[in-house]
Amino acid sequence: MTLPTRRPVLTRALLAPACAAALLAAPAASPLLAPAAAQEAASAVQDLVLENVALTFGETGVSAPRVAVSGTRLSKEELLAIFQGDAKESWGTRLQRLDAGSLTMPELRVERRGEKRQVVTYRDVTARNVHGGRISELTAAGATLSVEGAAGQPAKASGSYGKIRAEEVDLTALARLYAEAGTARSGFQRLYAALAVEAIAFVDERGTTVSIARLAGRDLAGRQTPATWSGAVESLAGADLSQPDPAKRARAAGLVADLAESVSVGSLEASDIAVKEVKGPDPLHFGIGRFSYTGNGAEAGVSLADIAFGSAEANGRIGRLALTGFSLEPTIATLRRLAKAAPDKPAAPEKPGEKAAPLPPAVDPAAQEAELRRLTPVIGTLTLSDLNLDLPGHGADPAAKPMSIGVRGGSVTFGPPKDGVPTASRLSLTGLTLPASAVESVPGLGSLGLYGYRDLDLDVIADTAWNEGTKELSFNELSLTGKDMGKLRLNATLGGIGPDVFDPDAAVSGFAMLSATAKALDLTLENGGLFDRFITAQAKTLSLKPDELRKEYVTASVIGVPVILGNSAAAKAIGAAMGKFVSKPGTLSISAKAKNGEGLGMVDVSTAPTPAAVLDKLEVNAKAD
Question: Is the pTM of this model over 0.70?
Fold first, then answer.
C-alpha cells in the first residue's frame, strides 16, 4: 500500500535506488536448477569482455556498453547465451548458470518506456562472487535519473544517487517474482540481505525537491502473485477501486491485495530527509532527522525523529512521532471480498440479428461507498512528543495575532474498525500549552484571561468505546485538567447506538441519533485554583468582598437550585452538594442513572413538563468533599 502524501515525489525518488539490488535482474520466468556441468564447461578460470550487451523486458530495456567478467569458467559463447534476449530458456534458468568472481560495468542504463520515459544510468557497477544466480555484493558508484514526457517532451523530473551497495542479492528469486505466477500459498523468498543508498536527490516537474542523506534496508523478501509482480504493476496503471465497472473494480482489488501481501521488509532507515517546494503561492519545507521502520517483533512500527516543517501559515517541530499496532488485515480482507464480487463472466458482445447482452447490474453508490470505508486499516497507536507550533498571525484573518502552541506528549489509539469506523479510541495530551487568548471565543473558557491566566497548561483525555452487541457508546473518560485550575471529568453511557450513527451521510447518522438514550452519567469537578480566581474576579466586578459573594452563591445553591429542579429529594441533594463545594471548594461529584435501565431518550426529555419529571426517572447521587 502507498501512504498518502501531498505528491508522489518521495515514492518516485526512492523507487530507483530500491531497484538497485536488481541491476542485473529484470522480469524473468521461473528459474530451474541447471546441471552442475554447465559451470565446468570451460577448462580453466578466465577473464572475458562482452561488448554492447542489450536486453529488453517488455517496456524495460537494459544496456551496458561493456561488461568485464573475471574469474569465470564459462566461455564467451556461454556468457552470451545467458544474456541472449530471444533465448527460449527462461531468464531464471540461464541466471542459474551465471558464475564469476566478478562482473564490472562502467555504465549500466535501465530505460522504462510508457506514458513517461524513465532512464536510470548507474556508474561503475560491480557484482562480486556471482554463483548460481546469487550475488554476494553488488555496488555502484552512483546513478542519475531522468523522467521525460511522451513523444520526446522536455525532462519532467530528474534525480541523482550516491554510492549504492547491496548484499546477498538473489537474481533467481527476483526472476520468479517478476515473471512467474504463484498463489497465496507461495512462500516468501529473500531478495537481498541489505541495501544502502547514499545522497539521494530528486526534483519533480513542479520544482519540488527531495533529498535523503542515506537510505538503508535489511531483509527484503517477496512472494509470487497470480499476475506476477510486473503484470500486477502494469495492470494497476490507471486502476480505480471506485470505478463503476464491477469486473474492472474486482480485478483492481485483487491485484492490490496480492501486491500488499507479497512484500516483506525486515527494517528500513533513512536519515536527513528534506522536502522543499519553493514555487507556487504556498511554499513549504519539511524535514525528518531520522526515519525508521521495523516489520516484525515487539518493536514493529514506524518512528520519525527531529521533524521540522514550515509554510506561510505555520512553522513547527516535533521531537518524535511513532506509529505501532498498524495492520492492513481489514483492508486486505475487504479487497479480497471486492475481488470476488465480479460477475461470473462478462456479457457477450452483441452479434448481428441478436439482442444486446444484458449489462452488469448497476452499482449502488451507497453500498460501494460502504465497501470503500471498510478498506480502513487498523491504525493502532500514534504517539508524539515535544511538539512546538508557531503561527505567525497573518493570513485569512488580518486580526490574528502570533501564537505558539506546544504539546509535551500525546497519543491517540484506535481500536479495530467496524465497517471503517474504529470501535474504540483514546486521545491523551499532556502539557498542551497555548495562550489564554487562543480560547477567547470558546464558551466557558473565554473568560480565563480575566481570571489572571495568560498561558494555559492543559491535559486532555478522551476515551470512548462502542459495543455493537449492546448498542452502547461508552465515554470511559472525558477529562480536562489545567495547571493551577483543576480538573473536570465526565463518564457517560449512551444506549441505542447502532451502526447507522457512524454513517458518513449526515442525514442517516442524524436520524439514527434520534433513537439514542442517556443511560448513565458521572460528573466530577476538582478545584485546583480556578474557582477561587472566579470568585475573586466576580467580587471585584460586583464591588463585593470575596467572602460576601461566596455566601450568596452558597445560598443560591442550597435554596435556588432545588427550586429550579422541582424540590425533589434528588434536587435537594444536588443543591446541598453544590453549596458545600462553593463554601469550601474541593471535589464535587454528581452521578445519574436511568431507573428503567434503557435510558432517557430525546423525546423523554423534550416532552417532560418540568425538570422534576426528568429527575424522577433518574437515580441521582451528589456529594462534595
Answer: yes
Stretch (H or E) spanning 33: none
What sections of 145-304 are H helices per DSSP? 171-179, 229-235, 246-260
pLDDT tens readout for residues 266-299:
999 999 999 998 877 778 899 999 999 998 777 7
For residue 452, the SS3 value is coil
Q: Look up residue 302 and give its three cell numbers.
A: 514506524
Please list, in sequence order, all residues whose beta carbon lies within 8 angstroms of the beta carbon of residue 527, skipping any fewer than 6 positions away. 486, 581, 585, 586, 587
CA pair distance 273, 289, nearest whole angstrom = 6
- CA distance linking residue 578 with residue 200, whole number of Å: 65
Write out the E strands in 18-172. 46-57, 60-72, 99-112, 117-131, 134-140, 142-148, 155-161, 164-170
Q: Please answer whether residues 273 and 246 qualify as being in contact, where contact means their C-beta atoms are separated by less than 8 angstroms.
A: no
Rounded Cα gap, residues 73 and 561, in angstroms: 100
Q: Answer yes or no: are the C-beta atoms of 89 and 78 closer than 8 Å.
A: no
Q: How many CB atoms lie within 10 A of CB 469?
A: 5
At a CB cut-off of 8 Å and minimum separation 6, what does 188 contact? Answer: 221, 222, 223, 264
Q: How far is CA 551 from the centre of its chain?
A: 55
Nine-digit cell string for 41: 564447461
Q: What is the dihedral of CA 225, 230, 235, 236, to 10 degrees?
A: 80
